[in-house]
Every structure is written in structure tokens, then in C-alpha cells.
Write a structure and sequence with these properties.
Elements lengths: L43 H16 L15 H24 L5 E2 L5 H7 L7 H19 L10 E3 L5 E3 H18 L3
Parallel strand pairs: 1-2
Antiparallel strand pairs: 2-3
Helix pairs in contact: 1-4, 1-5, 2-4, 2-5
Bound molecules: zinc ion.
Zinc ion (ZN) binds next to helix 5.
Length: 185
């Protein structure tokens, strides 16, 4: 009998997340307990660095490759997603800051297409940990950079959602915290 855990097969795409999560900027999330009022701009970096350690521990779990149910990402796949979220949010922040206070438009990001293209399920946990920690470090440094005056600088997502430097940081933190809740991390 072959060892299926050493040679996992493609589990197929997870159920796409098409929800618009911007409501978490104005009210608490009933799932993960995140409260937007608890996040101060100067606290974003610390939350990200704490999350980095918790995700690294998730990747070390023996069940990291196991999908908890059909259509739901494994912890490994969530970690790959969060790595890419860190990069996307950092680039959006840099784009706003490069805009010098003028409205900028974010390119669209299809997270489910990215998951399929990069075959998240095939990630190597040790390699992913290196990439995940680097992505968190870069994002944490980037969100430590804005001055108080820059916090209100605007960015527009392609679907029309409006962000500022401050609300982008809050939105990003929720994503990171919510996925820790997803993986019980
Ligand atoms: Zn949440």
C-alpha cells in the first residue's frame, strides 16, 4: 500500500470566498472575535509579528496538510494564502504612500485563482515557513513606516471599496487574525 500522506494528491479547489469583508472595519467579527476598535495604527506591526510566530507553529503541526473538511483549505494552504496576503497588503500600502496623498487604485487580486496557480496544497512546509516569515517581516516593517499625516491617504480597490492607510492596516490585521481562527492557530 502506498503512503498517501507522503504523496498527497491534488485535493482540487477550495470553496471560493467571494464575500466582501470590508464590514469588519466597522463592527466586530462574530467568528474570530476581532474588534476594529481595538486596532491602533501603531499596534499593527506588533500584531503581525505575533501572528508570524503563531503561523510558524501551525506549519509544524503533523496535520498541516490535512483539509478539515471538503472544500476547506488545510492549515498549509491557509499559510500559503496568508504569505500572499502579506505581500498584497504591503504592496497596496506602498502604492498609497507612493501616491503622495492622491487617490490610487489597487489592481484586482483573485485569491482563489492564485491558490490554484501556485498549487498551495503542494507547498513544502519548511520552505513555506521561510517565505511566510519573510513576508510577515516585510509587511510589519512597511506598516510601521507611515507618519500620522499619511494615515488618511486614500486607496481605491477595483470593486469600489475605499481604504486609507489606517483602514488598510485594520483590514489586513483582521484577515491575519481570522485565518488564525480558521486554523485554530
Ligand atoms: Zn474574523
Amino acid at each position: 500500500m502506498s503512503d498517501v500522506s507522503a504523496h498527497p494528491s491534488d485535493p482540487g479547489p477550495a470553496t471560493p470566498d467571494t464575500a466582501d469583508w470590508t464590514w469588519v472595519l466597522t463592527r466586530p467579527c462574530p467568528d474570530c472575535g476581532f474588534d476594529p476598535d481595538d486596532v491602533r495604527p501603531e499596534g499593527v506591526t506588533e500584531i503581525l509579528l505575533d501572528a508570524k510566530r503563531r503561523y510558524a507553529a501551525v506549519l509544524a503541526r503533523p496535520d498541516a496538510r490535512t483539509r478539515p473538511s471538503a472544500g476547506v483549505w488545510s492549515p498549509l494552504e491557509y499559510c500559503a494564502h496568508v504569505r500572499d496576503v502579506c505581500d498584497v497588503m504591503r504592496r497596496r500600502l506602498e502604492q498609497i504612500l507612493d501616491g503622495g496623498g492622491e487617490q490610487v487604485r489597487f489592481a484586482d487580486w483573485d485569491q482563489d485563482a492564485t491558490a490554484a496557480e501556485k498549487a498551495y496544497w503542494q507547498s513544502d512546509p519548511a520552505q513555506l515557513r521561510v517565505e511566510l516569515e519573510a513576508a510577515f517581516d516585510a509587511a510589519a516593517a512597511a506598516f510601521d513606516r507611515p507618519t500620522r499625516a499619511q494615515l488618511s491617504w486614500p486607496g481605491l480597490r477595483s470593486n469600489g471599496s475605499r481604504f486609507t492607510v489606517e483602514s488598510l492596516g485594520r483590514y489586513f490585521v483582521h484577515d491575519v487574525v481570522h485565518h488564525l481562527w480558521d486554523v485554530r492557530g
